[in-house]
Design goal:
The protein is mainly alpha-helical. It is 82% helix and 0% strand. It has one domain: Rhopdopsin 7-helix transmembrane proteins (Up-down Bundle), CATH 1.20.1070.
Length: 216
Amino acid sequence: MMSRVNSQSLGEEIANAISHGVGTLLSVAGTVVAIVYACFVSDAMGVVSASLYGFSLILLYCVSTIYHSLANNRAKKVFQVLDHCSIFILILGTDIPVYLSLIRGPLGWAMFGIATAITTFGIVLNSINLNRFKKLSMILYILMGWIVVVALWKIIQLVPPSGMYFLVLGGLMYTIGIIFYKMKNIKFMHSVWHLFVLGGSILHYFFVLFYTLPLK
């Protein structure tokens, strides 16, 4: 079922599109760097992880930019659903280098399986009815983002404190940003949320690049 499109002013939508348009450009450049870097410091699993992570970044920012650039029509409604689904894909994409390149082994694959299952479930819910399952989707976003703490003991063994700062601060940026996302009655709060998403993505990008891809 198609969802209702949230009403935002032209100025707000321009700000939304520009903010994630910048994210799209950064994602493309960052993906190229990550893949090339992985070729030098990692193995095949690291290169695949970097590629999937980069794809998830580009997908989210590209879809979001298109969604906010469209007029209020059927195409915008379709991209609104895709926009929310791509959030699940980005979270999974960010998890992949952690689980398959850093942790690896049975624990890594088990965590990857759980994250993939939640992603699939969330995408199905959003595709059925975005508005009806909005609260549940938000809970799933947060759950997916922080379920990594289950394997925190292992990550701490493999990542120095400097890397943990990037991981935790990135998660906090995403989580705190939700507060501004919920302020729908205040103009430009959605754009502020976009900036928090950008900040979280940048922090997690450096975590992935320097702390998950190099072979341990």
